[in-house]
Structures are given as C-alpha cells and as structure tokens.
Design a protein that fits this description.
The protein has four helices and seven strands. It is an alpha+beta fold.
Length: 199
C-alpha cells in the first residue's frame, strides 16, 4: 500500500508540474507567474521552491535602496503554503517586514521592524550561516527555504546563505533548523500584537 501511495503521489506531482501549476518538490521551476516582477537572470545559487517569490524578493531588495541586508523565508506545501516572509534592514537600525498570506501572489502587509528585531536577525543569521540543507525525505508536509542576501556597494545582490528545509518540525534532528522558521513567525506574531493594541 505504501509503495502504491508513493507511486501515485509521484505521478500526480509530475502531472501537476507538467501543467505549470506548481513547482515539483525540491526542483527549481523557471516559470515566473508575476508580470510585474520579471527576472530573466537566474538567482545564484538556484532556489528549490517558490521561484517566482524568490525572484520578487531580489527585485524588491534592489528597489529598497536604503537597506543593505535582507532575509526571507519561503514555504511550499503541495496545494498551498504557509505564507512568505521578507525582512529588510541595516545593522543597528530599524527595518521593514513584508508578508504574503498563504497562497497569495502579492504582498499583503508591510510593517516596521524595531532595532531590537533587526539586531536579532543579524545575530541569528550569523548562527544560521553554519547550517546546511535539511531533508527528511518526507514527500508531504511543508518545505521551507531561508535566504540571507546582502547588497554590495555597486548595488548588486549577493546571496550570502540559502538553506532548504524539508519538514524540520517533523523529526527531532530538525530542531535547529526549526529555529529558523520560528524566527520569522515570532516576528509576525509580535507585529500582530502591536496592531491589536493600537486597535
């Protein structure tokens, strides 16, 4: 039964990918669904998931000329996802976060980020720079990709670190990588609480 189920999932994944609806699991798709953010030059190193969103991330970072560092967490879960998170900032300064709701193709929210939060991202990215990709081999669940990018003096974007994670919360060995995911979700929760207080 297990072999039959896996075979069916692989066939379904292939059919869906052939139709150009979703990228196949763990494989980069060159399709860019956004007409507003066309990015003809491929990102190096190549992303695994949410290719369109990662292209947008680079384009937005270029437009935000005041920021020198950017972090992002992309998610993919077969027929849906858990949203996309972009954070831009400078060391010892405030920054901004841009959020997209699950299954959305556009940014739904932009919020200011405190100096403390940006400092936390800087410190965390130093720790995460030592991490490698994490793959449980699970064909279901949620996949994530963390990206830390830096803007050079000439304006070009350099990908400092990219980490692909397959279901880090499903096994104990994924605890360290799960901290990357929590970093972004904790920021979102804090900003939501701030808005609730204002209202």
């Amino acid at each position: 039964m297990l072999i039959r189920r896996i075979s069916c999932l692989m066939i379904l994944s292939g059919l869906v990918n052939a139709c150009g609806v979703f990228p196949s699991i763990g494989i980069a798709s060159e399709k860019n669904e956004s007409s507003d953010h066309k990015h003809t030059k491929p990102i190096d190193p190549q992303p695994h998931i949410q290719i369109n969103w990662q292209n947008q991330f680079i384009d937005i970072f270029k437009q935000k000329s005041q920021y020198k560092h950017a972090w992002a967490l992309f998610s993919y879960s077969g027929w849906a996802n858990e949203g996309q998170f972009l954070v831009f900032g400078n060391e010892k300064q405030t920054g901004i976060a841009m959020l997209a709701n699950p299954s959305s193709k556009k940014i739904n929210k932009e919020v200011n980020v405190s100096k403390e939060a940006i400092k936390y991202f800087f410190n965390s990215s130093t720790k995460f720079s030592k991490y490698e990709d994490f793959d449980t081999g699970i064909m279901d669940g949620v996949q994530y990709e963390y990206v830390h990018a830096e803007k050079k003096k000439d304006g070009t974007i350099e990908i400092k670190k990219r980490i692909y994670m397959n279901n880090p919360g499903a096994v104990k060995s994924g605890e360290n990588h799960l901290q990357i995911v929590k970093l972004f979700y904790e920021l979102k929760e804090k900003e939501n609480k701030k808005e609730e207080k204002k209202n």
